[in-house]
């Protein structure tokens, strides 16, 4: 009995040790990824800085990265940076949630019922090519210039790619798997939630990432509707006051924060799709 | 006068502020309106307008009660049926001029023939360009007008993509200070004025409050005249521009006349004709009538009086 | 539940795959379907299950004509059809209702029955072919269906695992008195399990022969009767072959 | 011999007849689709017209559909309509081709080689959330205000969704199929072209449709760069001159033409994916 | 080409699937792999093919140790693995080089050999299970590979189609002198085809027994020798079974 327990505990320690080792490997791999991923941006920044110092780019058009960084730091010091980032991130996330929710409901519906597709899909597809700026006057008219109209505007941007990918995912689900569900007497809702959604998850997640990207893009249009804070506001301000360092600061902030939110989605994607039988890349 | 038919107090007053209207910034910064209406529990809500067209959009959609715009923009909107009145002139700005780079070889309006000129159709700089060409007798067809947003026009000019630019402050002040761009044609009188507009509805139901807002603007105007340096600082701070640009911009604003009068009326009619010729305003609109509808000096006259 | 097919046929895009198949099975009977590849066996199972409703003819379950998917039906498809995003255990309990605990207990029991007690937490991509097939078997059996449709359920298994699972099937059949239709290419399997063997042939497939087996279960695998039956069946299949090899 | 020929010819006629019948059915189905798809837009238009007539919407902000239609007809009569539509469609299509080509090359590369992914992907993902308007000053700086900069701007918009969907498609390709290619000694290029692209076609086509939609959206930013014709120009002109009927006319044109181009892609999608084993919808 | 495995093993995520397998095959030999489900047969084939290179031990082809994918290799996977976007004919000619005409001619010939001459234009979703498997067989054989790895190639086929294809395989083997490794659960098949039968057992799988068959081909299916061998193999498999059923 004792011997057995001892054995069990060795096994456990071993497992533990190997797990810890795994984690270490994982962490060092993560660091490697980050380093590799930073190479090109850093090279670009250095080239840009050098060209700016050599005055190949005139400063009033394209200031050096150090100047732009100075602008961002300045914003950080007077405290307004966090306001801009905070309010924009809030708007994007709220719009993202709203847009995704609507897209899931409508997308499952349209993907699943032929009649629904014939009724709604043509119109939705037509709306898809209306530019964000075109919505601005209509949104101001319908919803005024408060937060709701801004969030809805972003939700519109998020909606389309999510919707499109959900439908394509649903259509692509293997008939064979759906039949298993039917044999097990699942109703339509269960079919969607237990088979179709998981099976179309890869496509759905791509849609989410596309949608989030578009959400960030729609921020500018949203913040044209009477905002006095936010990254989109900063961008437009920079354009109106001909301040390239403000424009570039807002671009860089967009890129960084957009990348950050996308990275979160990417991690979720990797977790959620671990079951895919895919080739380990060379 | 109109102050007799008050319908009670509004719950709140929604004001716009804009970087092209320095007095609006001063007023917002100093909080004089808040002070004025605090006792009655009326809230003041400030909304930023990024441009004349935004201010008018906000007015039209009942998102603000007072909006600042260029006179010409207000006229176009009015011609489209917008229910607004101009009740106050916040400045006589020289915010637009024709700008070029030294290597373009342009020194007068005459040289523009056959050249590319960037301008934003429908805005004050565009009207300015048309009137300048008209003045010098150059047909519009001889000039290639390229429609761009103001900031983009400045970039295109410094990059050399266009030969001249119908500029707008503060962009114009900035290119003037930081690159070698020069203003080769200036004419204060071809600028339409800075109009403070109010929604007709608001003016009808709360005329007394219109007067009190105008009084607030007056206070800001007087303060700005007395403290040009501090005003420039406020502008620089709010609009995130350098103090030099802010000072240059302020210098080009004349705050002496605030009551809408005949000069404004005439300037707007001239602008309206140009816009009609440029097909921005419909040909069958009666410019004089529209202008008279738009400009309503009674509030300012009553408040400022003499 | 009893089962009856009347002149069932199926046409795919103008081409007939199977035609004029009629047979019936009382509750608790085991019917074997034998036939050459592509003669319409799977097509018939799909028609019986209700997954396919565009067949000609009629199918009656418990006397009632229907084209819907039956309650209490179990289907082992020709491919494992596991859900790649679910673990082995979750795949097995997919069709079960009840609390999580109950489901897992039942699922684990059946996993043990098919010899996969240790693999409950694996994902389908980690399974061997035969293991996947056994998971599919467990998934169909765990719901204790009244009608069981099996499409070559044991084809990817070694001889002994196969025998074990055949006996498991008979256990379940005894407990729940299920009506079973089984498609198989293994004649020994058919003679060991079935009350009646229906041999299809040709393209479009038609019923060529029906053989009844009135032997008590459990049957002896090596018995003389079964060996004789095997010879009979082989001969009748050979006939088709000779005929078809002309073209 | 003769008899046989006769038989063959009967069979042929039969086939022919059934084909013709199939085509008839198809055509009447198409008509049905179009009718069904038009129901909701038409209802919306009628409601809008009625509300406008009742002056629920003030004409200076949201003119009635009939007024907007009048504007479009007016543009058509003075001939400028075709110029606007033509130039914008040309820009979108050119940008679409360019963006798609780059996305296919980069996407296959990044999807296929781990190192390429680690190097390029983080930066590309960061660029994805930069709004179209933010690119405008940079593009003017880099490429001036001619057609190339406009087309490139649209290509940027098209690029991202196509890229994202290609990668997700490639990652989702079943390992089992790729192994068949490897056994047949396909090289990397053949693996991509003969297995990975066809297998990820559903995702790729979704990307194309998403990308085309974004291309239409980027038109406005593109035509901010000194255009004197085009739907985006019309939209911005409408906003600058405070003319809601021009804005709405351009929105409706965007929707219609965007829908049309999407419809073409949708037909291609249906043709290209006929091999999918998918459930017939209820 | 000759083939040699030395102490080959494979571990998946810490769990050993198969270990210490060594055997060799001269050119033109047919090796059979038998064993219970999940004992590592497919894993071994993948290692030999070079698709999997993370095994322990060494594999030598023609005397040269390598972990790459071999030229001139044919692999029939346990699943059909057809490309759903290609027709049957295009699937068969997938690995061929040359002009379209040549490819199609060859492809059609092999389709005829596997009895699918009429189905050349169908898409995989329109095939029955056995038809799909036959397409996969044709696809592997059409390239006339020097090494052929077959993973339960005939499992989904009826008895007579199976026999026909076994003979087709022997034809090809005779023409090209291919070295063949075949995984099968059908003992009759193994004794009919193979020069040597390797029986794996246990989990992780290990070689339990090797049986050589020195009979000339073509062999008589009903011969006494094969029947004796079958009994021997059954017994050795039975042993495993008895052992495993303890846990
Ligand atoms: N990718 C994988 N990841 C983890 N485990 C795996 C993987 N592939 C195979 N295994 C494990 O390796 C063992 C052997 O699998 P393999 O496919 O070789 O079996 P097999 O002998 O071919 O069985 P069968 O006759 O059922 O096909 C199994 O226990 C399986 O769970
Ligand atoms: N979805 C389909 N579309 C077109 N033809 C089909 C379809 N499904 C099956 N068929 C055809 O119907 C015939 C019978 O197929 P079925 O799957 O029933 O064969 P089977 O008897 O199960 O054969 P196997 O033993 O090979 O599984 C085949 O010729 C096949 O080509
Ligand atoms: Mg079948
Ligand atoms: Mg296997």
From TrEMBL, chains A, D:
Q: A Pfam family matched by this chain, by name? A: BPD_transp_1
Coarse class of the primary localization is membrane
Cellular component terms per the entry's GO annotation? plasma membrane
Transmembrane region positions?
Answer: 30-51, 88-113, 125-144, 151-171, 215-235, 247-265
Q: How does it sit in the membrane?
A: Multi-pass membrane protein
Where it sits in the cell: the answer is:
Cell membrane
Q: Which family does it belong to?
A: Belongs to the binding-protein-dependent transport system permease family.
Protein name as annotated: ABC transporter permease
Its taxonomic path starts at: Bacteria, Bacillati, Bacillota, Bacilli, Bacillales
Automatic annotation (TrEMBL), chains C, E:
Gene Ontology molecular functions: ATP binding; ATP hydrolysis activity
**Do you know which InterPro entries this protein is assigned to?**
AAA+_ATPase, ABC_transporter-like_ATP-bd, ABC_transporter-like_CS, ABC_transporter_ATP-bind, P-loop_NTPase
Which UniProt keywords are present, listed alphabetically? ATP-binding, Nucleotide-binding, Transport
Q: What is this protein called?
A: Nitrate/sulfonate/bicarbonate ABC transporter ATP-binding protein
| Transmembrane spans | none
Task: Please tell me whether the keyword Ion transport is annotated for this protein.
Answer: no
Q: Report the SUPFAM superfamilies cross-referenced here.
A: P-loop containing nucleoside triphosphate hydrolases
Question: Which superkingdom heads the taxonomic lineage of this protein's source?
Answer: Bacteria
In this chain the ABC transporter domain maps to: 3-229
């Amino acid at each position: 009995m004792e011997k057995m327990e001892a054995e069990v505990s060795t096994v456990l320690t071993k497992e533990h040790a190997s797990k810890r080792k795994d984690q270490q490997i994982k962490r060092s791999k993560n660091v490697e990824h980050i380093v590799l991923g930073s190479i090109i941006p850093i090279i670009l920044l250095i080239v840009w800085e050098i060209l700016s110092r050599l005055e190949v780019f005139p400063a009033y058009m394209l200031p050096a990265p150090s100047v732009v960084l100075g602008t961002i730091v300045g914003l950080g010091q007077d405290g307004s940076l966090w306001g801009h980032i905070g309010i924009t991130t809030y708007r994007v996330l709220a719009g993202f949630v709203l847009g995704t929710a609507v897209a899931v409901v409508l997308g499952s519906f349209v993907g699943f019922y032929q009649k629904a597709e014939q009724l709604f899909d043509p119109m939705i597809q037509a709306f898809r090519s209306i530019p964000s700026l075109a919505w601005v006057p209509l949104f101001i008219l319908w919803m005024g210039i408060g937060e709701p109209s801004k969030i809805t505007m972003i939700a519109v941007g998020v909606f389309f790619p999510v919707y499109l990918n959900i439908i394509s995912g649903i259509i692509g689900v293997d008939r064979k798997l759906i039949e298993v569900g039917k044999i097990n007497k699942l109703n339509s809702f269960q079919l969607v939630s237990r088979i179709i959604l998981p099976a179309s998850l890869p496509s759905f997640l791509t849609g989410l990432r596309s949608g989030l990207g578009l959400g960030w893009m729609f921020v500018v249009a949203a913040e044209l509707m009477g905002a006095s804070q936010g990254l989109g506001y900063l961008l437009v301000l920079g354009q109106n006051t001909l301040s390239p360092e403000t424009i570039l600061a807002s671009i860089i902030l967009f890129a960084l924060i957009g990348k950050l939110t996308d990275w979160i989605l990417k991690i979720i994607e990797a977790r959620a799709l671990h079951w895919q039988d895919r080739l380990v890349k060379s | 006068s109109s102050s007799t038919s008050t319908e009670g107090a509004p719950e709140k007053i929604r004001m716009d502020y804009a970087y092209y209207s320095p007095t609006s910034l001063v007023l917002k910064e100093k909080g004089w309106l808040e002070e004025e209406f605090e006792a009655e529990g009326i809230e003041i809500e400030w909304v930023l307008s990024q441009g004349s067209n935004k201010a008018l959009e906000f007015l039209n959609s009942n998102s603000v009660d007072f909006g600042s715009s260029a006179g010409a923009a207000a006229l176009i909107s009015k011609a489209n049926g917008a229910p607004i009145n101009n009740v106050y002139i916040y400045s006589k700005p020289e915010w637009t001029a024709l700008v070029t780079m030294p290597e373009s070889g342009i020194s007068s309006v005459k040289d523009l023939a056959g050249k590319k000129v960037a301008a934003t159709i429908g805005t004050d700089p565009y009207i300015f360009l048309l009137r300048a060409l008209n003045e010098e007798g150059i047909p519009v067809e001889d000039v290639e007008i390229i429609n761009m947003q103001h900031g983009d026009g400045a970039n295109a000019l410094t990059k050399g993509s266009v030969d001249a630019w119908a500029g707008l402050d503060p962009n114009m002040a900035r290119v003037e200070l930081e690159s070698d761009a020069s203003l080769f044609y200036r004419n204060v009188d071809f600028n339409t004025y800075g109009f403070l507009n109010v929604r007709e509805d608001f003016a009808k139901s709360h005329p007394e409050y219109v007067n009190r807002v105008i009084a607030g603007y007056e206070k800001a105007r007087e303060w700005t005249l007395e403290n040009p340096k501090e005003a420039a600082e406020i502008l620089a701070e709010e609009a995130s521009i350098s103090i030099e640009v802010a000072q240059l911009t302020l210098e080009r604003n004349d705050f002496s006349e605030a009551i809408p009068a005949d000069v404004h009326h005439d300037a707007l009619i001239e602008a309206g004709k140009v816009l009609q010729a440029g097909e921005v305003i419909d040909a069958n609109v009666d410019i004089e009538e529209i202008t008279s509808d738009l400009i309503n000096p009674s509030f300012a006259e009553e408040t400022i009086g003499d | 539940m009893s089962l009856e097919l009347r002149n069932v046929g199926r046409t795919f895009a103008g081409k007939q795959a199977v035609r004029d198949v009629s047979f019936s099975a009382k509750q608790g009977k085991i019917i074997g379907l034998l036939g050459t590849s592509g003669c319409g066996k799977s097509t018939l199972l799909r028609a019986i299950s209700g997954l396919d409703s565009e067949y000609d003819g009629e199918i009656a379950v418990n006397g009632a004509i229907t084209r819907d998917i039956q309650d209490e039906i179990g289907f082992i498809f020709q491919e494992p059809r596991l859900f790649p995003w679910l673990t082995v255990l979750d795949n097995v309990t997919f069709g079960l209702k009840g609390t999580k605990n109950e489901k897992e207990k039942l699922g684990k029991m059946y996993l043990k029955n098919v010899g996969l007690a240790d693999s409950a937490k694996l994902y389908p991509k980690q399974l061997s072919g035969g293991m996947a097939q056994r998971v599919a078997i467990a998934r169909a059996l765990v719901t204790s269906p009244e009608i069981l449709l099996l499409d070559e359920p044991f084809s990817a298994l070694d001889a002994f695992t196969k025998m074990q699972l055949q006996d498991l099937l008979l256990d379940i059949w005894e407990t729940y008195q299920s009506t079973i239709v089984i498609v198989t290419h293994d004649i020994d399997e058919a003679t060991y399990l079935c009350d009646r063997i229906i041999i299809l042939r040709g393209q479009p497939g038609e019923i060529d022969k029906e053989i009844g087996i009135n032997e008590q279960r459990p049957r002896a695998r090596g018995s003389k009767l079964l060996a004789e039956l095997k010879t009979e069946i082989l001969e009748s299949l050979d006939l088709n072959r000779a005929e078809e090899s002309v073209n």
